[in-house]
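Practice problem: predict the structure.
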Amino acid sequence: MERPNQPAGGSCGAGTGALPKCAPLAFPYIPMQEQNPPRFSRAEALQTGTLFPGLNLPFKAAIQAKTKLANTAMVELMALDFAIRELNLYLDTHSNDQEVLQLYWSYLKLAKEGREKYESMYGPLMSTALTPEDGYAWLKDPWPWEIGGND
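Answer:
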């Protein structure tokens, strides 16, 4: 038996970020992702709050308008880390998607290289990146953003 406002076959489809008629606000709706769905760029993903356009729901528009981020080394690392986490969550349910798995590994490599380059120029990003040779230099001035670490 079909429910009212639900397409034949019982599926809402991938969608484009809008709540479909088959998902009234009174019912929780979790869009199901197809294999290898379209993806935003890393920067767009960080700004929109999702790597996948099909998960970009309308209530996020107000937040997106307020989160324009400059193109800095720090923002690129944030975007990579965000995309890695999104891909990780996707792979939890689509572990056979080899294209996304390869993208995941390439983003991990880029993030590692970017973090190493950033830290060689500006110092550690996290206290867990310190080594015994550094001592506990985490709270030493200047902070990376005070010497151009956001460039």
